[in-house]
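Handout, section 3.2

Students often ask what a structure token actually looks like in practice. Rather than define it abstractly, here is a full record for Bifunctional glutamine synthetase adenylyltransferase/adenylyl-removing enzyme. The first block is the sequence as you would receive it.
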Amino acid sequence: MAKPATQRPTLPSVGRLGLVEPPARADLDRLGWTTDDYVELLWSLSRAPDADTALRTMVRLADALDDGWDELNRALVKDRGLRGRLFGVLGSSLALGDHLVAQPTSWHLLSGQITLPSATELRRIFTEMAENTSETNDLRVLYRDRILVLAALDLAPTVENEPVLPFPTVGEHLADLADAALAAALVVANRTVCKDETPPRLAVIAMGKCGARELNYVSDVDVIFVCEKADAMTARVAGEMMRFAGEAFFEVDAGLRPEGKSGELVRTLESHVAYYERWAKTWEFQALLKARPAVGDAELGQQYVTALMPMVWAACEREDFVSEVQKMRRRVEQLVPAGVRSREIKLGTGGLRDVEFAVQLLQLVHGRNDESLHVASTVDALAALGAGGYVGRDDAANLTASYEFLRLLEHRLQLQRLKRTHMLPEAGDEEAMRWLARAAHMRPDGQHDSLGVLREELKRQSLRVSRLHAKLFYQPLLESVEGNAVELLPSMSPEAAERQLAALGYEGPQSALTHLAALTGSSGRRGRVQQVLLPTLLDWLSDAPDPDAGLLAYRRLSDEMAEQRWFLASLRDEGAVAKRLMHVLGTSAFVPELLMRAPEVIRQYADGPSGPKLLEVEPESLAHALVASVSRHTDPLRAIAAARTLRRQELARLASADLLGMLEVTEVCRALTSVWVAVLQAALDVVTRANTPKDGPPAKIAVIGMGRLGGGELSYGSDADVMFVCEPVGGAEESVAVKWSVTIAEQVRALLGTPSADPPLEVDTNLRPEGRSGPLVRTLASYEAYYSRFAQTWEVQALLRAHRVAGDEDLGYRFLLMADKTRYPPGGVSTEAVQEIRRVKARIDAERLPRGADPNTHTKLGRGGLADVEWTVQLLQLRYGHEIEALHSTSTLDTLNAIGAAELIAEGDVDVLRQAWLTATKARNALVLVRGKPTDQLPGPGRQLNAVAVAAGWDNSDGSEFLDNYLRVTRRAKSVVRRVFGE
């Protein structure tokens, strides 16, 4: 019986090859690949990341080779490795495809058994060519050829089952290639500049990724020049070297040199040492972690590294180390626009810079005491940190894998056009993402195609980096205090733990370790949950202005909430709750005390269907609820206790939302006013009920808000300025009505003034007629008689803020109509009254500022502060209120808008005053939030000023910038005040 003939594989269809463009069949015809002899070759082509692009480039390559095409065709059929390398390159890199078309014989570099040359061999090849040619193009072709070979080995596994090139090998070879290119550029520069003279002694120090031998395919090469003589010839050699390298190979960046781009291009070793000893910033020492003598004078280069490295390892003991590190972290985050943050694999959250920054910081912190950390590459440093117990070994391994994955994507994105980029394709560009997936060795996994695999992997890796970024700093710290770390594994010593906490911003690292031990030392569920939560919580706390106070507050809150399971569950399950709480605790002394007694507000830190739950409460509805709650109690003390409870919750909610940037300062002031009004009404109601005779009250009573209460502009530290007005009812004698009303007013003041742990409820009645010496309560007729005959200028001015806030509405409304006759009299206030206001203001400026206060930074009485703006506005109201009804407002900002609309002063001046009032009010509120008690004086530079800046909504925690802005705004306002107020 005859044997059956061997069945040959059939030629696949264009669709099965992954070719989607119509010209594909014609291109196959042009290459002669439409016979069964090319089946295996076509299947290899189909596995290229972009088969269409690879096919089109092959057609161009065939045209360029002309008679040499047959040789390549035969080689492709026989050499499986060549197929994988060539198709991998052409399907991944348009730029290298163009290079091959321009240099078609370079395909021979990809055939046979190829290996990567050593650093020494590379330098010899490049140097010899530089010595024998002056043509830039020859060296450019050589450089691109070497990139082609590396990329081909790197990409071959996407097409054929070639060995995967280890990631560190790629970065190391690229750095070796950069060194060789720099050496060639230096040869050309010496020949061009020096001619027959002896070249100067010049060392080129590689920095950044080149210095660490972890270079990208496309990257600027960072360098620093060290010379024996900083003369004109040496500077010209360095400059010519950079210029030639830029034309032939890559951009050379010397921006990391002392003083940056404004500094001298070349410096002697002595000059470098002097600069780093006296002037260098923390980031400059961090950059030196990767310094490596690359080319030029080897002895001089080594002397440079030997001289500067001791300074690098002592950098963490610099006074400004912590603040500089925090600035660097924020600066990186701010570099990325929010709209592209999810596509940025380098600078985005959970990206490459997160890993690199964390690793370098840990090296700086512990490197002085552990020489094993004196390594340059990120991967090597992670391994050393794991081996030394500064990072968990599993965490180090996982972070290394994530880092190498993200670097692989970065390499593929750069190879496509040989352009520097770190940006993933746009979300809707599925073809670009599918190409990237294939180029990065992604294969279908049964559930997802290659694109789906990439998306899942990106999500997983980004989350892992973000999670490990926090664990990297804090998990070893927790293990150092738990006392239950796995034996035989290295663990961080107490001294190392304190160093690390200090570097992360904790001024009391010993106390911080005590708090950590207490938090994780609880047995059972609480301790286990805290161990899981704390790495992330501590990371968020380290970004707050005062991590020490925040950690103490968190420990106290955790102890208080020990029996409330929902507390830790909310922090564990609601990321927004935990992050917001850490920001609040690490910024404010005011809110933690409220949360200790109103912890239910923490639940409102979560996000609801329409946004943060902190914003779901309307101040007006809460005010009604407060009054209604109090009305259910007949005992005044219990009633006010209920009012205090609701006020405490509302203050905690408002202050939390304020600190988290959810409310404008005007919204905060209105809400605080609403709370005070509700408390006054509730207190008045309960006291009135308790003191009303059986035959009914002898008087109606109304509470008139004055000052900031009347203006709806209360701040956290404000008292409630009020006046009480009464009117007899039911035929009661005036003396009886007044006496009864005084009893009510006194009891309201006493009841609200009862000492408690909450922020005080002080009722101030000193703005009444005759001040402290005047009657506490008057009838409406008595007020009218007094104001019409005896009102002093200050009393008239005080009435500008008068507004009914509690009690009988009709009586309060009639009081305001009466007050209008005094504050907005026909014909306006007299010239003498205006002069009196100016005289009183001058006396206040000279006498009222507290002893030792800085007049430039006192938010209330200081230069361009609240008093300056408000007195200016009130003077204009007194002068023009009788003519312009729009000025009949108790609100400073509303009145300013009316002043501008009436063109009483220039709109620019109105804006200056508005900004000063808003800036001073924000600062005044922030002072209370940070310090926990009323104060008007901004602190000097330091941690507390930084916290005030954050609490005031400044866009970073640099208190000096915040203070500079405050001084600038108030200085401009004072200029307007002098001009307008003193006319």
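Discussion prompt for tutorial groups: The chain has 41 helices and twelve strands. How would you have guessed this from the sequence alone?
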